Structure formats: C-alpha cells, structure tokens
C-alpha cells in the first residue's frame, strides 16, 4: 500500500503511533482510511 512512496516511512510511523495510542483502534482505523483516500490502493481488512 505504501511501497515506493517517498513518504512511506512517515506514513508507517503515523500508523504505528495511532495503533499504540488507541486501545480500541479508532485512531488506527482513521489513519488507514486517510491512507486509502490518497489513492494508494485498498486498505487491508476493508470490505
């Protein structure tokens, strides 16, 4: 999903931080939806 992007490391950092901050996963879900809107392809686990 992020392979080949110049900002991939930054996005991975954001996703990791979101996952660690929110036990319920709401922040991670939001971050993954944001990545999906960037036209990077489908988000893993999305319908």
Quick tags:
47 residues; mainly alpha; 2 helices; 55% helix; 0% strand
Structure characterization notes:
With 47 residues, the chain is mainly alpha-helical. It has a domain at 8-37. It has helices at 8-21, 26-37. Helix 1 runs antiparallel to helix 2 (26-37). The two termini are 16 Å apart. 0% of the residues are buried. Residues 42-47 have low confidence and may be disordered.
Brief write-up:
The chain is mainly alpha-helical and 47 residues long. The protein has two helices and no strands.
- Straight-line distance between termini: 16 Å
Sheet-strand content, in percent, reads under 5%
Major beta-sheet overview: none
Overall strand count: 0
CA radius of gyration is 10 Å
- Proportion of helical residues: 55-70%
Describe the secondary-structure layout.
Blueprint: H1 8-21, H2 26-37
């Amino acid at each position: 999903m992020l392979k080949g992007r110049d900002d991939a490391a930054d996005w991975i950092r954001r996703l990791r931080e979101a996952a660690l901050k929110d036990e319920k996963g709401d922040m991670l879900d939001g971050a993954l939806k944001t990545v999906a809107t960037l036209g990077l392809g489908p988000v893993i686990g999305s319908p």
